[in-house]
Amino acid sequence: xxxxxxxxxxxxxxxxxxxxxxxxxxxxxxxxxxxxxxxxxxxxxxxxxxxxxxxxxxxxxxxxxxxxxxxxxxxxxxxxxxxxxxxxxxxxxxxxxxxxxxxxxxxxxxxxxxxxxxxxxxxxxxxxx
Length: 129
Prior knowledge:
This protein has 3 helices and 9 strands; from the N terminus they run E-E-E-H-H-E-E-E-E-E-E-H. By secondary structure, the chain is an alpha+beta fold.
């Protein structure tokens, strides 16, 4: 972490599910939508959650969850727990019902990412276990 006037100007941060954790992993529908928006894949995931089969579930099983941001020059290079086609897994589903969240924004402006995170935190009823 590198600060200038108490403002981050560079860091490399990762948030992941603890490796080897065998506890039951559940994530709320709202948390899925919020993570998808942060990773740039929000539209498709939110649409899928609001229509069809997935709308009947309040939460989903997942195997692993992770998000990474490397900040340099006011841009975050984003990543997750592993590659997924042209993007990266933020949530890798597991169990039933399951859902995958794939981020597709590899580079995000720092100010935009902060706004997306603030918006996600203002959402009520977000649960990740």
